[in-house]
Amino acid sequence: MNNLLMLFKKTDHYLLGLIITIITLGLFTLASSDQSGTRLVLSQLINIIIGMIFMVWIVLTDPKKIFFYAPFLYLFSILLLLGVLFFGYESHGAQRWLNFGFFKFQPSETLKLTVPLILAWLYSNNDKNINIWQHLKAFILITIPFYLVFSQPDLGTALMISFCGLIIIFTAGLSAKFITISTIIFFAASPFLWLSLQPYQQKRVLTLFDPFGDALGSGYQTIQSMIALGSGGLIGKGWGNATQTYLDFLPEASTDFIFAVFSEEFGFLGVVGVLIIYLLIFYRCMFMVSKMQDTFSRLLSIGITMSIFFGLLVNLGMISGMLPIVGVPMPLFSYGGTSMVVSLISIGIIMTLYNNKTLIAN
Questions:
Q1: Which of 211-215, 251-255, 308-312 holds the top average pLDDT?
Q2: How would you label 102-117 residue by residue, b for 16+ Cβ within 10 Å and e otherwise?
Q3: What would the DSSP string read from start to end of 79-100?
Q4: Which DSSP symbol is given to 330?
Q5: Is residue 37 predicted with pLDDT exceeding 70?
Q6: What is the pTM of this model?
Q7: In Å, how far are 11, 20, 29, 56, 112 from 50, measured between CA atoms?
Q8: Which of 49-58, 68-77, 243-252 has the least mean pLDDT?
Q9: For a Cys-Cys bond, which of 48, 94, 227, 241 suits 237, CB 3.0-4.6 Å?
């Protein structure tokens, strides 16, 4: 009873209510898009329950333990990526998963959490002496997982890891001059980056400019997604009436393109409603970040908040044809075990850091 009372006090009810609303909407959309009966829905329910258990555990955990285990969690995630490299399960032309028989695990998703953890730990340990050498160490800590994820290949997750890491470095005090020079170097090196992409990844980037140039090939997913988005109109066709899904035109309807299904069913008004909920989640998380009183809490919270919402922006860009298709799920909405659990753990970390902000600062 005491633990339940403590949990009730430590849980941010406003944020939790918004999170449960998004998860519920995603679950109902999954139920309408699931062509296999109830298999995916039941599997997602298990994912949600596991994620909620971890979130509750984190909320009740002393944040000092999170700080202490940060480097070990980062190293463990790197070992998991090496495991994927040698023993990974291949699907859709990519080797991104570890197959444990009764479930598949995607280690790259954990980096959306462990990279912000290790960077916040690094800068917190050098709080009084943040200089160019600390920034260089941070770049190295980002580059290692970036290369391992990029080689799977998983360009979308690799870019997300880098973006969130750079946000933390910038927040920690990277100079504008260094950012300018790094940007110039990046654009100068872009031809080499282009050559390092897989042929299908190059096609996806080119398809961004003219999806109808290969309407039955690399542009097919983008075109079908745009049709689903547009056909919903103002109020949508109603739950379970997404013809793009039921007629099997829309690929990956339960994962990367599930929001296109939602748009077709609930239309423009439904889309606006969901985006407002996401904006409220973002606002609440950033409000909590603004109250953090120490370097570790502030950098970690802003890193994982941006990780969630950069994932949202990339997914929206994918389904609307504004960005290349890079296989990024919609946070808390798409079907996927690792993504759901990591997102809920991230929310739990923000809550516990906010609850203990005074204790940590002292």
A1: 308-312
A2: eeebbbbbbbbbbbbb
A3: HHHHHHHHHPEEETTEEEEEE-
A4: P
A5: no
A6: 0.88
A7: 17, 14, 20, 10, 18
A8: 243-252
A9: 241
